[in-house]
Amino acid sequence: MLSTDQWYRQLPLSLVSRTVPFVIPTLAILVLTGSEAAWVLRDESVWNWDQAWYGQVTLDLDHTRASGLTSWIDAMLRAIGDKPPLLSWLAQMFVPLTGLFGSTEVALLMLNVVIEFATLALVYSVSRRLGAGCVASLGAMFLCGGASLHMGLATQFVVEPLQSLSATGLIWAAWRSERLQLFALLSRVFFCVAVAFLAKSSSFVFVVPLLTYIVVARIIDDGAFKDSINLFDYFVGALALLFVAMAIAWYVISWTPMVRHFTESVTTNDISLLYGHRGFFWEKVAFWIGALSLSLSPSPWLLICILIPISIAFACCWKGGLLAIRALPKEALKTGLLFAGVLAGIAILIVVGLANQVVEDPRYLAPIIPVLATLFSWSLGVVRNAIATWLLVAATISNALVGIAFVHRLEHFNLSFASWLRQYEPDPRMKRMLTETVDLTCERNHQRYIFVGVEYYWFSANPAAFYSAKGLRPRGFRCQYTSLGYAEKNPQAAIDRLRAAKPEYFVTIAPERQVKPPDAFNQVNLPVLDMMAADPHFKLLDRQSPDVLIFKRIGQQPVSREEFRSY
User: Fold this and answer.
1) Do 448 and 394 fall into the same domain?
2) pLDDT in tens, 142-151
3) Is position 12 within any domain?
4) pLDDT digits (tens, 9 = 90+) for 184-213
C-alpha cells in the first residue's frame, strides 16, 4: 500500500495520464472550430448562388412549419428537388439563433460549427481505435481540420461539410464492425448511409467500398467476440429508421430531377464546360492530384510527407508475416491492412472518377480529407517512430495555423491556397446594397417574378431571393427573383424571356460598374439594359445607390408566376 506521501507524489502523474488524452484533443477541436466560428461572426460577404439557394430553402421550410405538421413534412420531402436537402433540413433548427446573433447567415452557419466539431471528434476517435497514439491522432485531426479545402468549405453554406461528416461517421462505424452485434452494426451503418445520401447523391463513391469492407470483415471473422448492445445503439437505431424513411421518400419523389441534375453534372455539355475543360485522362489525373495537394496545404510537401509514412506502413504490414496465403485474410483484417487498403482505394477512386469528368471544382475532393487523415494516423500507429511522428504532427499543426492566420487577416502570405479558402469580408457595403434593392422591389405580396439582369456572386437572382426570404417572417411573404437565363448567350432570347414575363421590376448593375469584358454568365446584360432603357413601359426609379438601376413597369399588367412558367 502506498503511503500518503507516495500517493501525493504520484497523483499529478496519474491526473496527467488520465486527462491529457481527453483535454488536449478537446482544446485542439475548440481551436479549430473556434477559428471557424470567429470567421462566421466577422464575415460580411453576400452568399453566392448555391449558398443563397440553400439558405432560401431553409427559411421557406422554417416558415412552412406555421402551416401545420402535414404541410411542413410535405415541403421537407419536396425541398430543392434536384439536390438532396439534408443541409436545409438540419439548418432549420438554427434559424431561431438569428435573434441572438442578429444575422441569418451567422445563425445558419453555426450548423457548420457543430458539423466541424463532430467531424474532428470522429477523426480523433477512429484514429485512437486504429491504434494511433494521442500525438498521432492529434496530427490526423489537425490534418483534417487544417486542410485548406476543409477549412474553406466549413465557412460556406454548402453540402460538402455534411458529406465529409457522413464519410467520417461511416469510417468510424466500419472499423472493427465484425465485433458489433448485428443490430448495433445495422443501426450505425443505415444511419450513416442515409445521412450520406441525404447530404449528396455522389456519396456512393465512399459508401459502396466501406459497405463492401463491412461485409468482407464479417465473413472473414464471423466468430469474433461481439460487444453487447447498449442504450446508444437503440438511440442510433431509432435515428436510422427516421433518416432511412425520409431518404427513401425524398429520393422516390425527386428521383427524376435528381438523376437529370447528376447526369448533367458528370457529362460533357455547354454548362459543364463553364466549370472545366476536356482533357486527356492522365492530364486530368495530374490536375486532380495537384488540386488535392492544394486542398491540403499551400505547400506541396505536406501531401508528400503524408504519403511517405502511409506507403511505409503498407510495406511493414505486408513484410510482417502476410506472405502465408491462408493467413492473409485474417492477418490483413487484424493489422488494419485491409481497412487501410479500402480507404486508399476510396481516395484513388475519387481521383479517377473526377478525372473522367469535365467539371473541375475542388470541393468534390471534400470526402478525401477525412479519409487521408485516417490513413495518416493509421500509418503512424504502424510505423511507431517517435521522431517522425512528432515532426509530421508539427507540420500538420503549422499548416493549420498558417490557414487560420490567412483567413483571419492576421498575416499576409504570398501563398496559393485552395480556391474555397478565403479571408473574411469586413465590408458590409455589398450586403447593404442588396438589402436596399430587395426592400424597394419586394414591397408587397405580388405573384410575379422580379428580374435581376446580372449574374455576379454578390448580386444575382439567388442572393436576392434569399434576402427576400430573410424578411419572410416580418413581412409574411417573400418575392420571387429570376435571371435572364442561366449563362444565356443570345440577347434576343433573354429579351423574349423578359417580355414574356412582363415583370413589375427589373434590377441590374449600372453599366459603368459592370465587369468588363463580361464573363460567360453575363453575356447579355448590356444589350438587355439598352432595351430596357428604351422601353416606354418601364421607368427608371431614382437611384438609391450609384451601383444599382431599378426599372419599374408602368401602364401594363404584369404576368403572374404561373403564367410565366408556361412560357
Assistant:
1) no
2) 999 999 999 9
3) no
4) 899 999 999 999 999 999 899 999 999 999
Q: Grid cell 499529478 — which residue? A: 12
- List all residues 6 or more positions away from 289 whose beta carbon is below 8 Å from its beta carbon: 351
Spatial contact of 153 and 363, defined as CB atoms under 8 Å apart: yes
Residue 375 sits in the same domain as residue 462: no
Report in angstroms the alpha-carbon separations of 108 from 293, 327, 435, 478, 497.
30, 51, 18, 19, 34
- In this structure, are 299 and 346 located in the same domain? yes
- The answer as to whether 9 is a domain residue is no
**Do 276 and 360 form a contact (C-beta atoms < 8 A)?**
yes
Instruction: Please provide residue 276's backbone torsions phi and psi, each rounded to the nearest 5 degrees.
Output: 180, -160
Beta-carbon neighbour count of residue 325 at 10 Å?
7
Q: In the predicted model, is pLDDT for residue 361 greater than 70?
A: yes
425-439 average pLDDT score:
89
Any bridge partners for residue 481, and if so which? 450
* Range with lowest mean pLDDT among 53-57, 154-158, 316-320, 502-506: 316-320
| Domain identity same for 443 and 371 | no
Say which DSSP state 46 is in: P
42 inside domain: yes
Q: Which of 377, 407, 437 is the last residue of a domain?
A: 407
CA angle 62, 462, 552 (to 5 degrees): 110
Cell of 98: 438569428
* Preceding omega of 517 cis (within 30 degrees of 0): yes
Give the integer Cα–Cα distance in Å for 63 and 457.
26
As for how many domains the chain has, the answer is: 2
The total number of residues shown for the chain amounts to 567
400 and 444 both lie in a single domain: no
Domain shared by 126 and 261, yes or no: yes
Neighbours of 311 (CB within 10 A): 12
Q: Which amino acid is at 206?
A: F
Grid cell listed for 315? 510495406
Question: Considering the domain boundaries, does residue 189 fall inside one?
Answer: no
Is residue 323's pLDDT more than 60?
no
**The C-alpha cell that represents 477 in the structure block:** 411573404
**Same domain, yes or no: 457 and 392:** no
- Domain enclosing residue 462, as ranges: 429-565
- CATH code: domain of residue 552: 3.40.190
pTM of the model: 0.89
User: Cα torsion for 166, 168, 173, 174, to the nearest 10°?
Assistant: 110
- At 20-45, the pLDDT tens digits run 567 888 899 999 999 999 999 999 99
